[in-house]
């Protein structure tokens, strides 16, 4: 009996040793927060191997595909893993300077955690056969659909697929999601459009660049592994040469756009494009996405040309399956701000493709960077957009000078006071000589336009959201392009752009009801039938938004609005000869103003202090009832308050419980440090919801200092 017991314990110990790798990491070793991730996903491999082949679309067109698989000693492992797919017009791999350049965007690093990476050339580009209907056409989504389902059926795939990529690569994944492939479970689109017309032709003017690799040398693309023959002896593999020979029939980007100036335009020269803006925009398929199982993590930077689009994608996205990150970067810098987006994608795909409960979907769905925010506090969480503490403050255009010493054509003022005079306008000769060397970024255009600048700010002002301009103008010609930028001006008069690329062609000024949630912002349908020529010499109102931002204007700095009739952030703008003299109105009848989303103040909550009469000599506890507004969502409810942060009159809370949507908190009178006396004394309460989201409130009580009045 004793011998059998010894054998039993020996086998038990051996079993525990053999299964140590199954023991979960200690809680202290588990880290999962934006840009930081450890303890949840084990490093399994330290190498990968790349192979390539052709995969046929449903119509038989051969599409070139690279596959990166985890490997041991140079041999791909047989274990099936989730696949992460990038569908690119920029060549999946190519030769430059005699070296092979890979377009995996660094994602091959995830192979060591047990992922397969797939990068494919879109139809008509790279080494893929066929002709391209156009950049961002919905047909690219159907090709992606075929590759996704092919990948999911391979023995090296676990049957689920995610997608990654930015800009044109981001749109191919949105197009793929619009076809709802059964095996596609999660996508991470970066710096890309939600609505094609609003992203490319916002305000009726085409953005500066585009084309999706039109000018690249497709013959420099790496051939697939099977393409080894060179019958022509010209150094170009036969299949690559045959594929590229079909590319000249691709629809040319700029000639196509020239035939599509309106949202409902149809190309006559390229009928296969159809009603491009209406048929290929991701916004047209959001119901399909929301009814599927696809989770979406939108990513962008405040200084990109598509800043508004990811926000719209988030707002209209699938509830409980959508996230948004907004950093300070530009189009080529991504989100930036120190956030490691490779790590963020790893967290996201681990959750949705591997079922690892790492808490990413328990966080607030929005993570954003506030430029100029306190050091170490630039990155913030939010549960909703717009932010719940947003106050829309009107800043009116006023007469100058502002005293900010600009180099503009007119130095006007910007003030929260309404204009009082019945007359007041600024005449401006349109200046088309603007220059800028940041065609995919932004520039300060003060010297070519009119500026309206506030007095120095007495305190920091935080702005997070969407500025909206209401501009009254008149012109001696029937149309014109108007641009608006928001800037921060320091004590020395130096200006930096903050919120930019507000623009509207005057003939597109009619306002319409959008077909998706547009956050109440002015939306211009821009159908051909909506066009309205300007009435010569008569005032009309132009209403349009400036791209959203998050920025703290420092105390002592100024807020400036710049208005121009030209910009290098569009491919072309209307130019008249001679340049017209347009008028900007700023009077009591025609009030021009910019509405700014000010988010300086913490979220307001209702506070009730009991008892209502305080005797500062008495001892013991008193009670404060803290009730957030009823309309706020998850994350801003009483149960979300971090009791350890709550103070009242300087006293910390010593106890608390939640009843319905009210936090009942107890405080010790002896801890009070900031209590005025009198019949109407304001007792202030401060604190934070989880994730450091601040709130405040106050109640009026009666305070007796010495036990008697």
Could you give a quick summary of the protein structure above?
By secondary structure, the protein is mainly beta.
Tell me the strand percentage band.
25-35%
Overall pLDDT level: 93
What low-confidence regions span 5 or more consecutive residues with pLDDT below 50?
Answer: 1-24
Derived from helix and strand composition plus strand pairing, the structural class reads mainly beta
Structure summary, number of beta strands? 37
Helix content: 10-25%
Total count of helical runs of at least 4 residues:
10
Q: How many angstroms does the end-to-end distance come to?
A: 87 Å
Oligomer: single chain
Q: Major sheet, described briefly?
A: 11 strands, mixed
Q: Using only CA atoms, what is the Rg? A: 30 Å
Shape: flat
Written overview of the protein:
The protein has 709 residues and is mainly β. The chain contains ten helices and 37 strands. Strand 3 and strand 4 form a beta hairpin. It is flat.
Blueprint (SSEs and pairs):
Elements: H1 2-18, E1 31-33, E2 36-38, E3 47-56, E4 62-72, E5 75-76, E6 81-88, E7 93-96, E8 99-102, E9 116-121, H2 139-152, E10 157-166, H3 168-178, E11 184-190, H4 196-200, H5 238-244, H6 253-258, H7 276-280, H8 286-291, E12 295-303, H9 308-315, E13 322-330, H10 341-354, E14 366-369, E15 379-382, E16 391-398, E17 410-415, E18 425-429, E19 450-453, E20 461-465, E21 468-474, E22 481-489, E23 495-505, E24 540-545, E25 549-553, E26 558-564, E27 581-585, E28 593-598, E29 603-604, E30 606-610, E31 613-615, E32 621-627, E33 641-648, E34 651-659, E35 662-668, E36 678-689, E37 693-704
Parallel strand pairs: 6-9, 6-10, 10-11, 11-12, 12-13, 13-14, 17-19, 29-37, 31-37
Antiparallel strand pairs: 1-2, 3-4, 4-5, 4-9, 7-8, 14-15, 16-17, 16-28, 18-27, 19-26, 20-25, 21-24, 21-27, 21-28, 22-23, 22-26, 30-32, 32-35, 33-34, 33-36, 34-35, 36-37
Helix pairs in contact: 2-3
């Amino acid at each position: 009996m004793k011998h059998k017991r010894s054998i039993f314990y020996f086998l038990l110990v051996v079993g525990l040793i053999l299964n140590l790798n199954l023991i979960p990491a200690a809680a202290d070793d588990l880290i999962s927060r934006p840009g930081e991730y450890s303890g949840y996903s084990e490093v399994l491999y330290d190498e990968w191997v790349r192979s390539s082949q052709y995969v046929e679309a449903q119509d038989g067109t051969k599409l070139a595909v690279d596959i990166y698989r985890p490997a041991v000693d140079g041999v791909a492992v047989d274990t099936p893993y989730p696949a992460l797919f990038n569908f690119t017009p920029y060549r999946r791999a190519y030769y430059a300077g005699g070296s092979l350049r890979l377009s995996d965007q660094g994602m091959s690093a995830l192979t060591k955690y047990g992922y397969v990476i797939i990068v494919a050339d879109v139809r008509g580009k790279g080494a893929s056969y066929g002709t391209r209907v156009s950049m961002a056409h919905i047909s690219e989504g159907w090709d992606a659909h075929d590759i996704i389902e092919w990948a999911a059926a391979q023995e090296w795939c676990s049957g689920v697929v995610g997608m990654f990529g930015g800009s044109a690569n981001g749109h191919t994944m949105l197009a793929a999601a619009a076809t709802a492939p059964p095996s596609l479970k999660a996508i991470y689109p970066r710096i890309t459009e939600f609505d094609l017309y609003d992203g490319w032709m916002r305000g009726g003017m085409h953005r500066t660049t585009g084309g999706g690799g039109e000018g690249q040398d497709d013959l420099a693309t790496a051939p697939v592994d099977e393409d080894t023959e060179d019958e022509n002896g010209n150094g170009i593999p036969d299949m690559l040469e045959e594929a590229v020979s079909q590319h000249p029939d691709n629809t040319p980007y700029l000639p196509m756009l020239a035939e599509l100036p309106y949202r409902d335009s149809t190309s006559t020269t390229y009928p296969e494009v159809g009603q491009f803006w209406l048929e290929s925009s991701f916004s047209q398929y959001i119901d399909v996405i929301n009814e599927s199982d696809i989770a979406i993590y939108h990513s962008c930077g405040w200084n990109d040309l598509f800043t508004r689009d990811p926000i719209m994608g988030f707002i209209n996205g699938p509830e409980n399956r959508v996230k948004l990150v907004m950093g300070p970067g530009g189009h080529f810098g991504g989100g930036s701000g120190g956030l490691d987006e490779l790590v963020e994608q790893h967290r996201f795909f681990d959750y949705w493709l591997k079922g690892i409960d790492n808490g990413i979907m328990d966080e607030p769905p929005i993570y954003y960077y506030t430029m100029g925010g306190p050091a170490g506090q630039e990155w913030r969480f939010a549960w909703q957009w717009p932010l719940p503490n947003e106050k829309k403050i009107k800043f009116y255009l006023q007469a100058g000078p502002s005293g900010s010493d600009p180099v503009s054509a007119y130095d006007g003022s910007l003030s929260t006071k309404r204009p009082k005079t019945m007359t007041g306008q600024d005449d401006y000769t349109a200046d088309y000589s603007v220059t800028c060397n940041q065609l995919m970024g932004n520039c300060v255009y003060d010297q070519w336009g009119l500026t309206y600048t506030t007095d120095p700010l007495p305190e920091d002002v935080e702005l997070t959201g969407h500025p909206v301009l209401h501009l009254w103008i008149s012109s001696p010609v029937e149309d014109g392009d108007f641009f608006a930028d928001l800037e921060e001006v320091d004590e020395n008069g130096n200006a930096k752009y903050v919120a930019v690329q507000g623009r509207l062609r005057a003939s597109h000024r009619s306002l319409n009801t959008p077909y998706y949630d547009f956050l109440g912002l002015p939306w211009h349908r821009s159908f051909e039938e909506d066009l309205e020529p300007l009435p010569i010499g008569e005032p009309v109102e132009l209403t349009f938004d400036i791209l959203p931002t998050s920025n703290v204007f420092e105390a002592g700095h100024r807020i400036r609005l710049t208005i121009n009739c030209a910009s290098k952030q569009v491919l072309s703008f209307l130019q008249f000869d001679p340049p017209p003299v347009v008028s900007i109105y700023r009077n009591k009848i025609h009030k021009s103003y910019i509405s700014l989303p000010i988010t300086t103040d913490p979220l307001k909550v209702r506070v009730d202090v009991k008892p209502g009469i305080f005797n500062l000599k008495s001892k013991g506890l008193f009670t404060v009832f803290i009730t957030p507004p009823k309309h706020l969502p998850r994350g801003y409810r009483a149960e979300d308050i971090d009791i350890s942060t709550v103070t009242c009159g300087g006293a910390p809370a010593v106890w608390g419980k939640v009843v319905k949507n009210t936090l009942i908190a107890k405080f010790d009178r002896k801890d009070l440090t900031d209590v005025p006396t009198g019949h109407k004394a304001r007792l202030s309460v401060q604190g934070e919801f989880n994730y450091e989201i601040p709130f405040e409130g106050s109640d009026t009580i009666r305070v007796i200092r010495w036990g008697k009045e």
